[in-house]
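Quick start: what a row looks like.
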Amino acid sequence: MREIVSLNRKWAFTMDGSAVPADVPSPAYYVNLPHTWNAIDGQDGGNDYYRGLCYYVKRLEREDIPEGERLFLELRGANSSADVYVDGRHLAHHDGGYSTWRVDVTQALAGTGDPLLVVGVDNAPNETVYPQMADFTFYGGLYRDVNLIAVPESHFDLSYCGGPGIAVTPTMEGDDAAVRVQVWLTDVAPGQKLRFILRDAGGEIVAEATQDAAQTAFETRIANAHRWNGRKDPYLYTAEAALLSGGEELDRVSARFGCRSYAIDAERGFILNGEAYPLRGVSRHQDRWGIGNALLPEHHVEDMDLICELGANTIRLAHYQHDQLFYDLCDERGMVVWAEIPYISRHMPGGTENTFSQMRELIAQNYNHPSIVVWGLSNEITMHGGNDPTLLENHRALNDLCHQLDPTRPTVMAFVSMCDMHEPIVQIPDVVSYNHYFGWYGGDTSMNGPWLDKFHAEFPKIPLGVSEYGCEGLNWHTSDPVQGDYTEEYQAYYHEELIKQLYTRPYLWATHVWNMFDFGADARAEGGENGQNHKGLVTFDRKYKKDAFYAYKAWLSDEPFVHICGKRYIDRVEPVTRVTVYSNQPRVELLANGRSLDKQESDVHFFYFDVPNEGETALTAVAGDCRDESRIRRVETFNPAYRLRERGAVLNWFDITHADGCYSLEDKAGDVLRSPEGREALLEVIGTMGGGKAAEPDDKMIAMMSSMTVLRAINLMGAVGKRPDKEALLALNKRLNGIRKV
């Protein structure tokens, strides 16, 4: 029988990648898995986290090696390339840091001694393995489980793309489900048998058969099948397959599956089991503050609990394959999932084969999950030009590969705003979605809906969704939020506006907030806390749900609640202040120091109260049986702890001078670029950030920058380049003060 032994404990770790260790390093620095070496430097904003080759070394004690005719080392995540050695002998190499892979170590572990196992893991930059350019940290390490698997000579396959050796395809035919179970076997002997059993969620057998092992597929029907129906009813069956020899069970595999039908319609959106089922949810990165990507099971469960509390029914698992435990949780909780590979931001001609291998692994390892409905080909891949013939060829071939490996699911791509809807690449996938940040990276919030309507009008047969949208919100506060201020109040306002626009357009097949959680992005230096992307609805440590979290909960969750916004914004200078309340109840009353101020009714879940601000005020919101409390306090001067004072270089509002009829750092970058003198001045500064003269911005770039101030545009660019110091910015401002506006 199959035996699985965990190898997670006590690995000697060394960052000296000069030579493959011939023994346990001395003195040894021991770690338990999962482990990453970038848990700290990958989140501190230095843009200098270690990317290179490190070694994990483990002396296997003979008595701990399981008995089996064949032995496989299973690595469930080694980022991003890895090599396996036993007693100095190189056994395998793997490229791709987010999938499971296995190595046959049968011969290498034969013998009587205690073998030395070495895994070299390398996250150094290269031109062949994705990802290499993206807005997140590429944590290095053995950051998921490592196991040793013992099986008989005849066994269910362990070698193909890290897959489970079993694939279940249920097809709804009326109320019945036609179910096909396919298995793959290694070294089958004459006379061996396969026993198939299908069980319902309660463990009762609904179908079974025993047949010759040469016949590796089993087909049956489940009458009146209980459907997997998303959050409403995520019902799961289990398929079991056992390999028998003379009545003895040699090996066994199993897979849970769901019976469901779905379609993605260009007019009606997502259809689940024949009914409209609008997909409204979030995207998720897998890392955490102080932990990196080396998550434990309880971390995955907490993430899923928070997403369920929000009321989401879909998750885009960005931008790579996630832990199998999380896909299992999606199946169990009824989440509809977009699964993708890290083909992102920049097409690398040398990385074509890696896109194919990562896609094969993604599909082979996740085929059975009923939660997954689309395979993602790439993300924002046209950011640096979308007309490269090799890029188009790569995507067409990748799209074909997905359909060959899985004819049951459509493909999807996430396009960046600057990708024109008429580009040929937009026609390649079955379904499209766009990453739009109008209202944060240029433009304003009102531009989102009309842009989507225009696409839908021009391409009425292409299903359209929104794969990313969001803005950064930290612990900064104001009563007058504006784009780019990084306040929790502007983030809440932004999402209020986007909810109103996106959730009222039924043709959108899916919308995914970017992002559910703040995440590590070591190159980022904005918002006053470097090393993170703060677009999350929940903080990086999962300790604080931002106000925007409750805006979505009000629209999506059936759990009665009421929430007063601005709990971290206590000191306020205005005599009458606006207080926002979110609730999924139709009627909200706000009390100040126990006295009722107002009762409001709303079908859009957002309630706004003008509150007299005198002394200290205890606020209580009441909605049905739900209550929430907060407080405000009148102060004479604005509390400086609420204001972001550092934006890239330390530059305060009073440092920026203005001249009548001339430009300054506080003018829109798009306006400055339209002036020949202003364009020259701005490009010179941008050029110093990239180490040379900046390229001429095209019309798309100007449109994107049109509503950003020069100061904000420079600081956003500085998140991935060399930021100008205060003196350089003041020099640019002085120069702009001498240029007349056009």
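That is the whole record. Residues 389-405 form the longest helix (17 residues). The chain is about 20% helix and 30% strand.
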